[in-house]
Amino acid sequence: MRYPLLLILGLFFRIAHAQTTFTVSFPASQSKTPLDGRVLLILAKSNTSEPRSQVSDAVETAQLFGKDADGIKPNQVVDFGADVFGYPKRSLKDLAPGEYYVQAVLHKYETFKRKDGHTVKLPMDRGEGQNWRTAPGNLYSKPLKISLKAGSKQSVAVVLDQVNPPIEEPKDTKFIKHIKIQSKRLTEFWGRPMYLGAHVLLPAGFAEHPEARYPLCIFHGHFPDDFSGFSETPPPATMDTTDYIERFHIYGYKKQVAQEAYDFYEKWTSKNFPRMLIVEIQHANPYYDDSYAVNSENLGPYGDAIMYELLPEIEKQFRGIGQGWARFTYGGSTGGWEALAAQVFYPDEFNGCFAACPDPIAFDAYTVFNLYKDKNAYYAEGPFRRTPRPGQRNYLGQVKCTVEETNHRELALGTHSRSGDQFDIWEAVYSPVGADGYPKRIWNKLTGEIDPAVATYWRDHYDLLHILRRDWKTLGPKVAGKIHIYCGDMDNYYLNNAVYLMEDFLKTVQNPSASSEVAYGDRAEHCWNGDPTQPNYITRLRYNTMYIDKIMKRIEISAPKGADLKSWRY
What we know:
Keywords: Signal. The chain is an alpha+beta fold.
């Protein structure tokens, strides 16, 4: 029997476009009032962990779809069809038939009426460090196993009947104290109470030497739930060592981490170790797990709030010397950028920075492209072809993902720079405020097309190399001898590219000369921090002891006449 061609084509069209759709809702038992937020739908091929834990930049990532929803009422459904943007597949219609594990999350947004007159909806940090997977109060569903069938039309209902629990506050110990203050500056900016916190490691003998005043080191980095890497007890001999860390290709890393924490305690309490305060700051905000420790049009005056509100309170409570010659800062990755930025933007307030594997410190080497000359962030473009830009690599140069793929994951997680992830926080910190109250896009998040006007704003306000070049006449005398930068030459995120440019400047600048230090780890990945004698998986655990000798030398040669160099050297 022969079928007419139009009938065959019509049948094919219906089969090809038949698809599965999803509805997501929450019951009144979870909230009787409407909620705002980003509804996330995740499909995974494996049940080794919850689907929400499998979203990543890796090739094995789960599939993610995201949709903004304002004023969702109890039992009101949010529809997910072929038009909803996804990562890594763009649309539900692109999913292959087969079995999947499905989960949904509602990342809650709150309304902020800022001082600048803008009203925005953002995910307030709730003590978790801006993590949509674990944020207290976020609703989620239990994983559901489904089967997508070729050519059939299905509708799957997903119910957000679970809620993330609150996070317990860390408790004080003999050595580790916790402080939290309401910031006047940030409260005024955000139009609601906003807080800064810190974990403070006290020196041995703090209580026994009330006359002592101490230097202070800020250990910058991502959101710390407590002061990490310090333990008064050694790991038990029977501690399991079967855990395998893919990144370092070793077994038993948890025990090594525990042993390093105890070794640090022994050094910290040893007779000849310098007595000082080490501080880890909590400055999570509605865009990210930390603020980058600078003033920003979109985040507010975090730099000033940390510098002129939080630090004075810490030094008051814990007897800090409270002068620039006795303050130092260090950190890696985000913390590396923050350490250098704090030294550049507050040059008189710090006596040295140790910046390891810093986020891009020169935007003409913004990872793998030039923000000022290139037209597209995702592709190198010629007259006849477009080559994708790599986003991450290993020490052999093998590419893990592209810049486009990472940005599309962020776009699925949140519009308006609200993904809580890396490229979005750079945009939130560095960009001017847009007409809608959200950060102006540095590039089109979908296509990668760069906005030159926004790039110019970034250069003038946050390109650390540009700022040092532009202002060296006044900055140079204040930062000479204070800058130390370390980076692996195979950094996974290509952060060494900007370091090369910074090194060229620091080596050649005069009046005054920079008297700086820049060092590279051969074939070292992210985040190499300056010790060529140890593997990176060990040195990354030793930030708080690695730079002590250089700090002490700097204090000896730069402390003003009459400075207190003795009360803390017991």
